[in-house]
Design goal:
Blueprint: H1 2-14, H2 26-46, H3 49-52, E1 55-58, E2 61-64, H4 65-82, H5 90-107, H6 117-133, H7 151-177, H8 184-209, H9 215-234, H10 238-244, H11 247-257
Helix pairs in contact: 1-9, 2-4, 2-6, 4-5, 5-6, 7-8, 7-10, 7-11, 8-9, 9-11
């Protein structure tokens, strides 16, 4: 049994997913969008009146800066209004980020010290945080995917993972009992890994539902998953392997939601 536990510890250490900044909850994201709206107002107020009459050239053509800023405000409002527990407003966030990228490109062509420069730099910090929350960067590259899973979606994914973990626990216990080369303590330790995996998933689900920080719990769950994959590779457990086959895609979605690197092939 000690060898099994040592092996699992080594697997978890080697295969640990890369930790990222904690995922923004829906509540955090709402607060961020409010800051972006406030920052946009401060930026516009700081601009020189002549600059507002200048022309901004983008992929869709030319438009007066003042009109572009008004449209930018309208789309920030739409993002704020349309974000719901069951709708992450990814399309609306993409529009805001692409408009902000056009403004950023325009403003970076102006001389240092231009009025509004400091206000834009401050706003760009929040826009970058918004981009990270939607799985991209700011300035946002042309054609880059902009996608976020809301709290409700993440909780559902983790709930499905927990259910699969429960089934896996019972299946492993049944299949390993048939293997006469595995003693009871070893079988128990292996089955306990699946039980802990399901429990870890439920802990993460509850954190997400409560709107609490949860990146550590997500990382721990992904580490536990790597240990389970090693177990399944080491033993002939066709039924358990069949149950597990549907789990890695869910784990991949989960890792993406937290900005972590995870692969079922490691």
């Amino acid at each position: 049994m000690r060898n099994v536990l040592t092996t699992l510890a080594i697997v978890a250490a080697v295969a640990a997913p890369t930790m990222a900044a904690d995922r923004l909850t829906d509540r955090d994201l709402k607060a961020l969008v409010s800051r972006i709206e406030d920052g946009r107002h401060k930026f516009e107020d700081a601009l020189d009146g002549k600059l507002k009459n200048d022309t901004l050239r983008g992929s869709t053509g030319e438009v007066k800066v003042e009109n572009f800023l008004n449209d930018f405000q309208d789309n920030i409002d739409k993002l704020d209004e349309r974000m719901k527990p069951d709708y992450a407003a990814s399309a609306e966030a993409a529009t805001v980020l692409r408009q902000a990228t056009a403004i950023d490109h325009f403003f970076r062509t102006l001389p240092a010290g231009t009025k509004g420069d400091s206000e834009w730099n401050r706003l760009a910090v929040d826009l970058k945080a918004l981009a990270v929350a939607y799985g991209t960067d700011f300035p946002t590259p042309e054609g880059a995917p902009v996608r976020r899973l809301g709290d409700k979606e993440v909780a559902k994914i983790v709930d499905n993972i927990a259910e699969a973990g429960d089934r896996l626990e019972h299946s492993l216990d049944n299949e390993l009992k048939k293997d006469v080369t595995i003693d009871v303590p070893t079988r128990t330790s292996i089955v306990n890994v699946a039980d802990e995996f399901a429990n870890d998933a439920r802990k993460l689900r509850d954190k997400v539902k409560n709107g609490d920080p949860s990146s550590s719990e997500a990382q721990h769950l992904l580490e536990r998953a790597m240990a389970i994959q090693s177990i399944l590779k080491a033993h002939q457990t066709p039924t358990s392997s069949g149950i597990w086959n549907g789990v890695p895609p869910l784990l991949q979605q989960l890792a993406s939601a937290y900005g972590m690197a995870w692969s079922a092939t490691r």
